[in-house]
Amino acid sequence: MFETFGDRPGADCRAGCEWGSVHPEPGSARQVQRETTQTSGECGMRQCLSLCSLPNPFEIQASVGCTVLPGNTSQSFFQAAFQGEEILSFQGSAWVPAPDAPVWASRASRKLNEDQGTRKTLQSLLNDTCPQFVRDVLEAGKSDLEKQVRPEAWLSRGPSPGPGHLLLVCHVSGFYPKPVWVMWMRGEQEQQGIQQDDIVPHADGTWYLQISLNVATKEVAGLSCRVRHSSLGGQDMVLYWEQHRPMGWVFLAVMCPWCFWRVLCSGSGSTGKHTGDISALTSI
């Protein structure tokens, strides 16, 4: 399992694996280390179980990995849990029982610490192999991690939710990376009852999102849609509903001057004819 956290240069990145889930090339040094760790771990576990009276069946869980931080530093972790409760962790070069672990966890940690070969192998895997693996993956995907595409946003009116109400829709499209914050606002106050669809991908790898707000017609004044995204450089994108013009009004604004020009240009060209046409248009 490999996960990256953050979408900007210098963000923390973390790698982890569950026991036995990494499959390096046969014969490699990493496989030799892996096999040694698994064999020693299995033997140590059998020895620990022989020292403890445990319920049957039982469940043991492990969380193993490392975090690469800015400044070429890293932190490693290895925690073990029994029946969902942490019992041991590998710190520095030794196993340490958890503060609230059962008494037998102390005996188990002492037994595991007797295996110096496994402890050295764990140190190497956690402090050297794991951080270098993360850095290699980060370098390979550097262009994608640093990619920033600004969103486009627009407003529209959705299907009528009922008499005296409007469905306001805010569309945000073409942004990358995926994390984005979009909200209907009145001033600095976030509005309640917002419906947000899933963020869906475009064919070019960018993303699209829309959010809707059911509001009474008389309460639309002062509403705006606010967009925050890493590509905007800390400057929110704000779209005000009062500045939004439905397509019907846009059509009229374009067509009316054209109709007026046609009236002026029609007829024989006499002043009286033009005046009559203009009066007829005015009366309409």
Automatic annotation (TrEMBL):
> What subcellular locations does the record give?
Cell membrane; Endosome membrane; Lysosome membrane
Q: Which UniProt keywords apply?
A: Cell membrane, Endosome, Glycoprotein, Immunity, Immunoglobulin domain, Innate immunity, Lysosome, Membrane
Occurrences of domain Ig-like (ranges): 131-231
Which Gene3D superfamilies has this protein been placed in?
Answer: Immunoglobulins, MHC class I-like antigen recognition-like
InterPro entries in alphabetical order: Ig-like_dom, Ig-like_dom_sf, Ig-like_fold, Ig_C1-set, MHC_class-I_related, MHC_I-like_Ag-recog, MHC_I-like_Ag-recog_sf, MHC_I/II-like_Ag-recog
Q: Name one GO biological process term.
A: innate immune response
Q: How does it sit in the membrane?
A: Single-pass type I membrane protein
Q: What is its main location?
A: membrane
A Pfam family of the record is C1-set
Q: What does this protein do?
A: Antigen-presenting protein that binds self and non-self glycolipids and presents them to T-cell receptors on natural killer T-cells.
Protein name stated in the entry = Ig-like domain-containing protein
Q: Species name for this entry?
A: Suricata suricatta
Instruction: Give the lineage.
Output: Eukaryota, Metazoa, Chordata, Craniata, Vertebrata
This protein's encoding gene = LOC115288504
